[in-house]
Amino acid sequence: MKTILLQFDTDSRASSFDRVVAVDAGVEELFSYAGINKDNVTGLVHGAIFTRGPAKLNNTAIFVGGSNVGDGETLMKHVQNTFFGPMRVSVMMDSNGCNTTAAAAVVAAKSHLQLNGCSAVVLGGTGPVGQRVAQLLAMEGSDVLLVSRSEERAETACAAIRSKTSTGSLTPAGASTESEFMELCSGRKLVVAAGAAGVCFLTEGSLNSLPDLDVAIDLNAVPPTGLADVGAMDKGKELAGTICYGALGVGGTKMKVHKQAIAGLFESNDRVFDTEEIYALALQVAGLTDK
User: Fold this and answer.
1) What pLDDT is stored for residue 222 in this prediction?
2) 54 lies in the same domain as 110
3) Which CATH number does the domain housing residue 142 bear?
4) Which CATH number is 263's domain given?
């Protein structure tokens, strides 16, 4: 029996990126649907779960994607709520690469740092990737400073993360100037820049002024990058005593995790790959499960 992946994309056109990764992950049949939302997805889910007997449903799976992470989260919940009893298939949510990117970033940090008790700062922490990075770091026991241009939004994000994990610590902070960003990064061991494309938090030469910083990760590949000292291709590059990773530098792990998660959907009919599950897979991919 062939494996079938149903791609539910919330955008008007289904992502070609997600389609290519699905094919490279070994999916035999890919059904791509665009413009999917909670109001029109139920029939598609029913089509996925009622066409094969429960013992064969491990051969069907659903991928939720699109550029809007909030829409993806809403769609993911509705898909899961449509399942009942044994009538379900495995499902993965990775809208805009939010989960696989965050998982790959934290894995990169973990390969160099003891994250339990690590002092970390996440710049652009209220965005979908930034929030997930902060969540995963907190789950690892880190002392996380979540930074946004609005302290109120930062506190809202921290509250949402606290509802998901009781480990680590989360502190909100607001900043809008480079001097403020520098002050918040001072004394921290890890900085992750997860801002929107074109937003630069720290200009060139800033890392020289952060002697306590051990690892710097920038997840923006579009110039100007969030941390100007970090190149998009950097992968474990040392600069001024700091290990640097750029967006493409963590991209190799991100792609491996994405493909393995897709393949893992067909191991049973009840797997769910969201933030925590994708991070657990990323740790396996990186060989860090015992650290």
Assistant:
1) 84
2) no
3) 3.40.50.720
4) 3.40.50.10280
Q: Where are the beta strands (DSSP E) in the chain?
A: 4-9, 29-33, 60-65, 90-93, 119-123, 143-148, 169-174, 190-193, 215-218, 235-239, 242-245, 272-273
The residue segments making up the domain with residue 25 are 4-93+254-286
- Rounded to 5 degrees, what are φ and ψ at 84? -155, 145
Q: Which of 222, 201, 242 lies closest to 232, judged by CA?
A: 222
Instruction: Output Rg (C-alpha) for the chain, integer angstroms.
Output: 19
82 residue type, one letter: T
Q: What angle do CA 284, 32, 35 make, to 5 degrees?
A: 110
Is residue 195 within 8 Å of residue 184, measured between CB atoms?
no
The pLDDT score that the predictor gives to residue 226 is: 94
Task: Report if residue 291 sits inside a domain.
Answer: no
**For 164-205, how does the pLDDT look when each residue is reduced to its tens digit (9 = 90+)?**
999 999 999 999 999 999 999 999 999 999 998 888 999 999
Whether the predicted pLDDT of 240 surpasses 90: no
Taking all residues of the chain, what is their mean pLDDT, rounded to a whole number?
Answer: 96
Residue 116 covered by a domain? yes
